[in-house]
Amino acid sequence: MSYRIGFIGAGKVAWHLAPALKNSGNRIVQVISKSALSAQKLGDRVGCEHTDRITRLDKDIQILFLTVPDHALVDLINDISDYRGIVVHTSGTFSALRFACQKYKYGGMYPLQSFSIGRRLDLSKVPVFIEGCEPGVTEILVNLASGFTSETHLVGHEERRWMHLAAVWANNFTNHMMDNAYGIMNEHSLPVEWLEPLIRETFAKAIELGPQKSQTGPAIRHDKATLKKHVDLLSYSQELQVLYKRISDSIQSVSQVPKEDNL
Ligand SMILES: NC(=O)c1ccc[n+]([C@@H]2O[C@H](COP(=O)([O-])OP(=O)(O)OC[C@H]3O[C@@H](n4cnc5c(N)ncnc54)[C@H](OP(=O)(O)O)[C@@H]3O)[C@@H](O)[C@H]2O)c1
């Protein structure tokens, strides 16, 4: 079955989701975004009409994706109250039940991945978590997502927000740690590329062995002298010192690996 699909919000998620839905046989008929330029870029990418005017929403769209930041979803619910198709959000934390006061049908389609505009991304194994307001809507959304991924799962709001929280730790926080590592390298005129093999092995090993078994370094070795040296080296940044101590404490408190196993 092929659907007429529209997007409100032309950011990171829409950039990947719109072509994926198009490539699986649907028609993307309209993109609306806050700025005309964003709408145009995505509209051109999938070959459809684009506008920055919500009042121009095409009422014949069968499935309308709201790929906007969560805080914007709340206002949009009222802005599209005349719409009668199926409204879908892609948020990890937003409860689709907030659509329940409207006349349209609704659901959630949350892809557990980190999206960026311009990156090539294979969606075929990305888990997509689906929730519909009624079985008919759930079935439509599962079929839609099955067009681009083999990993569709029915998951309610409660589980989805726990997954989103876990995703923040796995992706946003680790990324921030790497940003700090790059900052230290840059600060001392060292090439950041030298970190790449370490970063690759860190993630590959965490997936293969599990993060607890993979942990190495001065904190898990309870190597107090090195921990102190590192804190002293960070004397130029109180923020990094605090972070370093907190994370080291946390590593030591959750570690179940005997000290002698850690090099
Ligand atoms: N990014 C991820 O990796 C990721 C992963 C899974 C789920 N999600 C979820 O997917 C949703 C979208 O996230 P995103 O990362 O794609 O956001 P984003 O990159 O910040 O893009 C949001 C888009 O919404 C537009 N917008 C904002 N307010 C609007 C309004 N009132 N009316 C119309 N358009 C509006 C923005 O417009 P302009 O560009 O014109 O300013 C932008 O194009 C969020 O619920 C997020 O939690 C994100």
How is the secondary structure organized here?
Layout: E1 4-8, H1 12-23, E2 27-32, H2 36-46, E3 49-51, E4 63-66, H3 70-79, E5 86-89, E6 105-111, E7 128-132, H4 135-146, E8 152-154, H5 157-187, H6 196-209, H7 211-214, H8 224-233, H9 238-254
Parallel strand pairs: 1-2, 1-4, 2-3, 4-5, 5-6, 7-8
Antiparallel strand pairs: 6-7
Helix pairs in contact: 8-9
The chain binds NADP nicotinamide-adenine-dinucleotide phosphate.
Residues 8-14, 33-35, 38, 67-70, 72, 75-76, 90-92, 110-111, 114-115 line the site of NADP nicotinamide-adenine-dinucleotide phosphate (NAP).
Summarize this structure as a short list of keywords or feature phrases:
alpha/beta, Rossmann fold, 2 domains, 46% helix, binds NADP nicotinamide-adenine-dinucleotide phosphate
Question: What does this 3D model show about the protein?
Answer:
With 263 residues, the protein is α/β, with parallel strands linked by helices. It has 2 domains: 4-155, Rossmann fold (3-Layer(aba) Sandwich); 161-261, ProC-like, C-terminal domain (N-(1-d-carboxylethyl)-l-norvaline Dehydrogenase, domain 2, Orthogonal Bundle). The chain contains 9 helices and 8 strands. Strands 3-2-1-4-5-6-7-8 form an 8-stranded mixed sheet, with helices on one face. Strand 2 (27-32), helix 2 and strand 3 (49-51) form a beta-alpha-beta unit. The longest helix has 31 residues, at 157-187. It is elongated. The model has no long low-confidence stretch (mean pLDDT 95). The structure holds NADP nicotinamide-adenine-dinucleotide phosphate (NAP). The site of NADP nicotinamide-adenine-dinucleotide phosphate (NAP) has 25 residues, from helix 1, helix 3 and strand 6.
